[in-house]
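Q: Could you fold this chain for me?
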Amino acid sequence: MTSILILNGPNLNLLGTRQPEVYGAETLAMIEERCRQHGDKVGVAVSCLQSNHEGVLLDQIHAAKGVHDGIILNAGAYTHSSVALMDAIYSVEIPTVEVHLSNIHARESFRQTSYISKAVIGQICGFGSFGYLMAIDALTHRISGPAPQ
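A: Sure. Below is the predicted structure, expressed as structure tokens.
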């Protein structure tokens, strides 16, 4: 069975109470459950982890090699600052999709730069928690389908 790891970075544990006008009212636990249910529906095992610590996210990306077929990463603020996460994605050679609840390109200028976008197969932003489901579908298609031309 295809296996996808969903990693969420700093402050995403506060979803539901942190700026709901920007990030929505759903909690991270609610989003993770929706992702697991969607994975069950499309025949994909979904594992989830959130950490406020960059090193934990790096370790999880490294550990995913040979275990997971794809990664969905919402790196939170590390998106705009972490060369280490970018390097880790390049290093493990696992198809990875970058997800953001808000449209980072329509926000403050510092949020419009994503270091990790250089290493991922695609970015989904601005669709709220539905972006995670879109990412599951995109990864499933990439993993099971022919390689892009």
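A (continued): The chain has one domain: 2-144.
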